[in-house]
Amino acid sequence: MDxxxxxxxxxxxxxxxxxxxxxxxxxxxxxxxxxxxxxxxPHLTDAWGQIEVQLSTKATTxxxxxxxxxxxxxxxxxxxxxxxxxxxxxxxxxxxxLPFIQKMALKLIHFFPSRNSLFYLIKRxxxxxxxxxxxxxxLLANAFLCTFPEPExxxxxxxxxxxxxxxxxxxFNSCLCILNYFxxxxxxxxxxxxxxxxxxxxxxxxxxxxxxxKKISKVTIMDTGSIESDESSEFHAIxxxxxxxGGLLHAGGYAQEEMAFILRPESIVSLLLxxxxxxxxxxxxxxxxxxxxxxxxxxxxxxxxxTGTLPPENRQIFEPTNSLSINLVCVDALxxxxxxxxxxxxxxxxxxxxxxxxxxxxREKTDKEEQIYATxxxxxxxxxxxxxxxxxxxxxxxxxxxFFLGSFWFFSASP
Length: 415
Hints:
Layout: H1 4-9, H2 48-55, H3 66-69, H4 75-84, H5 88-105, H6 108-111, E1 127-132, H7 133-144, H8 161-165, H9 169-187, E2 193-200, E3 219-221, E4 235-240, H10 256-263, H11 270-273, E5 284-289, E6 295-298, E7 305-309, E8 327-332, H12 345-357, E9 372-375, H13 389-400, E10 407-410
Parallel strand pairs: 3-10, 4-8, 4-9, 9-10
Antiparallel strand pairs: 1-2, 2-5, 5-8, 6-7
Helix pairs in contact: 5-7, 12-13
């Protein structure tokens, strides 16, 4: 039994019900003409004159940081200086690193001169943005110094204020990862670009899972290592919230998605490009190509700990033709309200199509016979998927890559 249809028939199917507001067979095609909404950047607001003065102010003490963050200083800086007081780390922060971050933040006008310089990736519309690594560093510097305007309504902001103020140990270590990113960038500015793409799967491209006779390709299951530190695969499945980024910037959790983003800080810019109101539709995935991993770590969730910088030789320069770069495929798992829901045929189809959405058009762009896709525990955290079903998705996904990705890798989400 090595064809997909036969394997599907052996799955546990309990009843059927309406799982989604939009079924996969009735998904609308993307609009013919792209409509764009543009990001309101700090230098395009009335407050920029004052912000510019603040960003030009030299800070040498904890008290001086109030010019950026107000009288109620974020908890991170107090703990950081307590842990590293009178060390080269603290001295370097005020003498070199902070001035560098300020300098990068002030380059907004240079990198994004007009109101049409940066646009959102909006729902149900396939589109992409390519940003240089300097442009990304500029945006992250402004987020770190909290210069972005407050969001409207239920939108979540892009400033790092909540992260810097969090009392969680994992949040403190996340901030250390951010500082390490700026430090590495200052030492040797990386070249290349990062591409952020909102990808849609239209009905004509959706496989018929029940009748397919394609053979399942090879599957390798690994019970050691972690997806976050894997550099050998070209695709990493990031099981995201339908609102990209999860609780990263708002100290709401440190599962696989948050860890993947904080270890590859350039990917955090996707949270600016895809606001809360533009959450993932059922036929959508976000693909981030070329985001570099700067930090090493240990632990998972509440025990997540920054353990140092990765050696420079691990650096990868991303260009569209560079097949060595890693593509983060961000897809949201079905939230299972009951243990049996996940075994329904409609649920399994939904998850397979979600995985497929992030990669189906890559075959058209490469002549390689074999590519490696890394994944971890699909929805086994807050979404409630059982570990029994995880290898089941693995075998199915092996089929997906039977015609363009030769290998499927399964990593544990924690070391």
